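Bench notes, afternoon.
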Amino acid sequence: QVGTPFHPSWWCEGDLPRFSPTDWVNFTFGAATALITIILTSYAMFAVWVAVGPESYSFGTQESWKFAFIHGMTLIFHSGIWMIFASSGIPPIGDAKHFRAFPPELPAIVQARPHDCIPAHKTDLLMGNVLLFIGFTSILDDGKFDALLKGGVAVCWTIAILYKLKVHKDGWGYKITADPDPNGTVTPKKKD
């Protein structure tokens, strides 16, 4: 069993080692995770921003599909960025010295308990994908549901913000309990 520095909930409390014994596994998993999370999500956010325009954020916008679409993508994007700030930081892509050169390891800025971040992240992803789906469909073209949609988006953002505040309040002062060994790997807990 191996962990990954990109998913600290796997190793932060000593359940699994932080790295695989094989750095090529670490590298491929790290590269794939970076591609899927920050690179492709950032590209998708940029593409939506260009396609529908930042004016679509406004609660006064007349085109509800654009409003749903940009808020859905932003919920997803902001949640991924929050996971970097609150859970994983920027981890190295491997344990060996040459894999630690770039990117430099940066801890989470406001460390929360990674296990507690996951439900908040999943909630954001669900709400964001529902809004993307609503934006993709034409059910909002007639304007009959504008007030309901805009109220629903306000509720989604309120849930997202309050959930994150709760995660940080409950986990204030959280420290990773697994002790890294001199090579940066984490020694798993002994099973009783």
